[in-house]
Amino acid sequence: MKTTKSLRPRGRPRQFDPDDAVATAQRLFHERGYDAVSVADLTAALGIRPPSFYAAFGSKAGLYERVLERYNATGAIPLAELLDPERPVAEGLAAVLESAARLYAADPEAAGCLVLEGTRCNDAEAREAARRRQAAAEDVLRAYVGARHPGKAARVTDFMGVVMAGMSAKARNGHGLERLLQTARLASLGIIEALRD
Q: What angle do helix axes 60-74 and 50-57 make, rounded to 10 degrees?
């Protein structure tokens, strides 16, 4: 008597892990940019069907929000560590710029800052999520500078934001670590000058 073997694996089916999914999506968004990643790309990478995707994340922008939370927790510039209140302000800001250069160039396939690049995406909900995080980081910088240079905090924070956005864009366009560090160090000289009494 001939028996047919089942093609289904024994035991329980592999469970969908939302944390793994967020990590996978982070990689895709960082490599390609938010706009270039479709829901079809995400479901294929995650090994799930669209209904499961929407049940888990609500939308592509909902997943992106989770990705940004993960990025801030695990891959963003450690502002709290670098901006020690006992450290000279110019030194702390220089450390932030150098850290940015290193992070932005660390992976040529996923270069730049996930948050800063997201502030320019076409999806209003995703763009706003990225802008909220950018604004929160700028608030930290502004408070750090303002504690000792209150009249210069807004101008220096704006300068930091412009330099970091430019470094992120250049990293995505192929600038390597040495070029980004040169930019960071040159910008640091400008900060020293701007903070001079």
A: 60
Q: What is the pTM of this model?
A: 0.88
What is the DSSP track for 13-47? PPPP-HHHHHHHHHHHHHHH-GGG--HHHHHHHHT
pLDDT at 133: 97
Mean pLDDT by 10 residues, the chain (197 residues): 46 67 96 97 96 96 97 93 96 98 96 96 97 97 98 98 98 97 98 92
- Nearest CA to 112 among 67, 167, 65? 167
List b or e across 140-160, with b for residues whose CB sees 16 or more CB atoms inside 10 angstroms. ebbebbbeebeebbeebbebb
**Cα end-to-end distance, the chain, whole Å:** 94
Write down the number of H helices and E strands in the chain.
10, 0
> 186: buried, middle or exposed (CB in 10 Å: 19+, 13-18, 0-12)?
exposed
Q: For the stretch 36-53, what's the b/e string if a residue is b when 16 or more beta carbons lie within 10 angstroms of its beta carbon? A: ebeeeebbeebebeeeeb
How many residues are given for the chain?
197
Grouping H, G, I as helix, E, B as strand and the rest as coil, residue 76 is coil
